[in-house]
């Protein structure tokens, strides 16, 4: 096994380990997104050694980004966004990272990699768009004075059983005092 293949395996193992740290795909996505956007530091020296170092760092960063993007796409496929808005935000985040790396690959003349990234982006786009269509949209709710979650649940949904949902969506410290502006799923 060569050093380069060991580095590639290590980058993939790192991405898989980050993805496996949490049983919640949303947490995995939060952990993988910074690695998928990793950019090497500018070269410190303009001589041959500095340029070679910069080239190596750029290649290693690209390897890490692409491994993270593959794991990120798998995590997005496993994710269960709670609303249409969350699904669209996830789709836009993952597709944006994939598109950025697609440009990097194309600029470097790595056509096969750019095409693979484009195909992966299209699959993520189609999957999350399809799943988003079946989810409720969020709406903004503004209340003048704090009220209990039970009151909000009845006013919004005519369903007292959704009080805990309202409290979670409002990110309330105390479910008896929910006021201001918050987002909640449509009816």
Describe the structure.
The chain has 187 residues and is mostly helical. It folds into two domains: 130 residues; 48 residues. The protein has seven helices and two strands, in the order αααααβααβ. Strands 1-2 form a two-stranded antiparallel sheet. Helix 6 crosses helix 7. The protein starts with a helix and ends with a strand.
Summarize the structure in short.
The chain has helices spanning 3-20, 25-36, 48-78, 84-107, 111-132, 149-157, 163-169, and strands at 138-147, 178-185. With 187 residues, it is mainly alpha-helical.
Structure summary, number of beta strands: 2
Please, what is the oligomeric state? single chain
The best one-word shape is elongated
Query: What is the helix fraction of residues, given as a range?
Result: 55-70%
Question: Number of DSSP helices?
Answer: 7
Q: Biggest β-sheet: count, sense, barrel?
A: 2 strands, antiparallel
Strand percentage: 5-15%
Mean pLDDT: 87
Q: Please indicate the count of domains.
A: 2
Which strand order do you get reading across the main beta sheet? Answer: 1-2
Order of helices and strands: HHHHHEHHE
């Amino acid at each position: 096994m060569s050093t380069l293949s060991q580095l590639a395996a290590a980058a993939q193992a790192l991405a898989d380990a980050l993805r496996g740290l949490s049983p919640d795909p949303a947490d995995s996505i939060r952990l993988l997104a910074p690695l998928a956007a990793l950019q090497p530091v500018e070269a410190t020296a303009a001589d041959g050694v500095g340029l070679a170092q910069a080239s190596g760092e750029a290649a290693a960063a690209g390897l890490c980004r692409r491994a993270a993007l593959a794991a990120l796409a798998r995590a997005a496929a496993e994710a269960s966004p709670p609303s249409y808005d969350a699904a669209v935000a996830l789709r836009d985040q993952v597709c944006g990272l994939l598109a950025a790396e697609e440009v990097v690959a194309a600029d470097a003349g790595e056509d096969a990699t750019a095409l693979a990234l484009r195909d992966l982006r299209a699959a993520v786009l189609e999957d999350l768009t399809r799943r988003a269509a079946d989810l409720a949209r969020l709406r903004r709710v503004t209340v003048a004075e704090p009220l209990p979650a039970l009151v909000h649940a009845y006013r919004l949904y005519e369903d007292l059983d959704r009080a805990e949902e309202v409290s979670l969506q409002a990110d309330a410290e105390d479910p008896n005092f929910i006021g201001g502006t918050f987002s909640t799923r449509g009816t």
